[in-house]
Amino acid sequence: MASLYHHSSFPLSPPQQLTAPEPPRAPPPSYRISTLPSSSHHGSALPRPSFACHCKAPPRDHDAELLRALQSNGNGTLHGEPAPPQVLDSRSDGPGGDGRGERPRLCARDCAKRIMELPVEERVKVLDLLQRDDAALTVSDYNDILSALGRAGDHASAVALFRAMPVAPDAHSFATAVQCLCRLGAPDEAKLALDEMVARGFRPNAATFSTVVGCLCKRGRVTKAMEVLDAMRALGCEPTIRTYNSLVGGLCYVGRLEEARDLLNKLKDSPTTPADIYTFTIVLDGFCKVGRAEEATAIFHDAVGMGLSPTIFTYNALLNGHCREGKPLRAFALLMEMCGGEGACLPDRISFSIVLTALLRAGETAAAWQAYRRMERAGFEADGRALDTLARGLCRRCAADASALGDAREVFAKLVASGHEPVSYTYCLMAQALARGGEVDAAVALLEEMVRRGYALRKRAYTDVVRALCDRGRARDALRVLVLVMIVRDFVPGRNAFDALLGELGRQGRWTDAMAVYAAAVKRGVVVSWKHLGREEEPVRLGVTQ
């Protein structure tokens, strides 16, 4: 099709499939047509098939033809062949033109790239249209191509084709162009196209008006959107609930929440366009985003009172509102109601993530653990960051509740298995929890893993491990931990770690080892207590066994 792509010296269909070619046309003197070798034509230019000839052709592989069209470089030659001189369209200024200015054109391969994504029936139909001459195409044919490009997502090409149509567009052409302009994020151009459509005597339908209203509202152009709404009513086209929902969303977007709520209240009592659950959800979400969750809750109950079923978006907006206001326990209670099966809407992964993150941030570890277990039961997985935070919370809880150690180990194991690397602080808290819970060997192994990975060690972590080993009379293992810290990581242990080890060595009567540890502490500037180097009943001389 000449208006869709540059003139080509060969048709889109393969040469051997042509049945009755026309006699070759004489090329204009301003350019030379590139030829393809052919035994039947003895090197002459391959003729362009007529429409009648095309109809008699046997069934073709349209996908192969589209792929062949994609090989074209847009000027009638295949990639790698020399390009002929630029072909001037009959509507452009220059030799053979009529002086009306150059008209924008599309390249066939650009259209074909998108059209190939459509179902077989649609792309076959459009391919047939692309191979015709401009004179053979009607406005209905152009509408089919416009619609195909729009469905394929190539909105820019559809708009360019609409502007280049040699025939007068009809209502369907304008409606498609308006839709594509809105998809391209050009509300001003879409409104101009809508105004021209009305000026030419066409009557847009409610869907076309609603598309423009929605596009304007998404960019905060609420005043312009209201003008379109007034024009819609003036033409006798009744706005739909989709139109009103777009307007309500625009009002919330620019912060005009009271107007949005007033419009919602009017729609609640409207006999023709009553508010649906999406209208309530939009207003509810607007109030939640500005920290007015109590008013959002009232709107939620109004929707339920009207017999509407809240969607997952409604619940998630309300959950997010409670968490934004620092009320994670209220959000947790609402989440448990959703899990209870009383409502028709079960929580999704986003619902659990909103509440779990807020509970962990507020330090509500017990509730966070319950939410996590519910999340697992529902078949969802928490992200690595949430698991990391939950593991730290459970480790801290172990100080008051020894039964939480098993939960902490389970979460920590899942965190490591998920591929998310725990932070150094989480490792240290886990080592402390294991040491306090009596799993000293696991705590030592975790410290060694931290040293191997190059993590920073917290003094409190290895001090608790040293104390736990000393309490069990394992002075040699405690000394090994201190050596690991001092020699391998080049850290200076704190006084409490040295005191614990000196006390255990003194209890075992290993004074020589105690003096060596004491000397190491003094050398590193650590002041240790003398009471661990002798018995309280009688003073002793250092280094002399009593």
UniProtKB/TrEMBL annotation:
Pfam families: PPR, PPR_2, PPR_long. Residues 21-30 have a biased composition (Pro residues). Residues 32-42 have a biased composition (Polar residues). InterPro entries: Mito_RNA_Proc_CCM1, PPR_rpt, PROP1-like_PPR_dom, TPR-like_helical_dom_sf. Residues 1-47, 73-105 are annotated as: Disordered. Keywords: Repeat, Transit peptide. GO terms for biological process: mitochondrion organization; RNA processing. GO terms for cellular component: mitochondrion. PPR repeats lie at residues 170-204, 205-239, 240-274, 276-310, 311-341, 348-382, 423-457. GO terms for molecular function: mRNA binding. Residues 361-481 form the PROP1-like PPR domain. The keyword Repeat applies. The keyword Zinc does not apply. PANTHER family: MITOCHONDRIAL GROUP I INTRON SPLICING FACTOR CCM1-RELATED, PENTATRICOPEPTIDE REPEAT-CONTAINING PROTEIN PET309, MITOCHONDRIAL. This is PROP1-like PPR domain-containing protein.
